[in-house]
């Protein structure tokens, strides 16, 4: 294969390559087309080449749907955004499944010291980008530090957890694909006024009842809570 490529390249003189602009480099990879390329006839070559290489875009795209609009989420000032307290963290729903045709959801997470979820796994992809601070993430039993500016991806069904061991809160941008996790959080958490609102006070009985509710909804939201 390599010898054939080299022989085809060598067969074109430097003058022809130069006068034919830069299209000569495609020749070894365009079977039955090179003879169409002669100096001054690049347009004919390109027409033939792209006819062979093009695809019917209608087969992979659909018409624009005016029912779907763009969204600008402003977590500090948008009063329509929902902020929910879950396991001591505060999660701001930036985009939910209804806004993304259920392809994904986007959540702004504020994780205080010692915050973070218990060990768990779920059948959807999850990605965290640390915006501020850092977290200790445990993936299949191995712990790594993920700092501001870094991204952690968790594949579907893999056991994981994370926590913030620092005094300063950590801020994460979490994407779940497909969407649905935001509905789980809203079902088991408490709505709070802002992105940085502390969690409401709960006694032990309330915490026990909340955990029981979460466990009862895990199968609905394709999640499994694991033992520490």
Rg on CA atoms, Å? 27 Å
Euclidean distance between termini CA atoms: 55 Å
Number of strands: 12
**What structural category characterises the helix and strand content?**
alpha+beta
Q: What is the helix content? A: 10-25%
CATH topology group of the largest domain: Jelly Rolls
The major sheet is characterized as: 7 strands, antiparallel
Q: What spatial form do the alpha-carbon principal axes imply?
A: elongated
Question: What's the rounded overall pLDDT mean?
Answer: 85
Major β-sheet strand ordering: 8-5-10-3-2-1-11
CATH superfamily of the largest domain: Jelly Rolls
Under the CATH scheme, which architecture of the largest domain would be assigned? Answer: Sandwich
User: Uncertain segments of ≥5 residues (pLDDT<50)?
Assistant: 5-13
């Amino acid at each position: 294969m390599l010898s054939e490529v080299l022989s085809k390249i060598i067969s074109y003189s430097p003058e022809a390559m130069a006068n034919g602009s830069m299209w000569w480099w495609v020749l070894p990879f365009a079977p039955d087309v090179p003879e169409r390329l002669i100096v001054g006839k690049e347009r004919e070559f390109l027409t033939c080449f792209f006819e062979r290489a093009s695809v019917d875009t209608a087969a992979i795209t659909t018409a624009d749907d005016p029912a779907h609009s763009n969204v600008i989420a402003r977590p500090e000032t948008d009063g329509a955004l929902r902020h929910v307290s879950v396991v001591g963290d505060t999660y701001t729903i930036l985009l939910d499944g209804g806004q993304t045709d259920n392809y994904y959801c986007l959540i702004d997470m504020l994780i205080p010291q010692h915050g973070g979820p218990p060990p768990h796994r779920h059948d959807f992809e999850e990605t965290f980008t640390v915006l501020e601070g850092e977290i200790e993430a445990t993936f299949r039993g191995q712990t790594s530090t993920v700092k501001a500016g870094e991204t952690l991806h968790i594949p579907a069904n893999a056991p994981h957890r994370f926590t913030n061991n620092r005094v300063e809160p950590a801020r994460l941008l979490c994407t779940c694909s497909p969407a649905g996790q935001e509905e789980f959080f809203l079902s088991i958490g408490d709505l709070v006024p802002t992105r940085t609102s502390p969690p409401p006070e709960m006694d032990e009985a309330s915490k026990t009842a909340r955990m029981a509710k979460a466990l009862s909804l895990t199968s609905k939201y394709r999640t499994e809570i694991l033992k520490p």
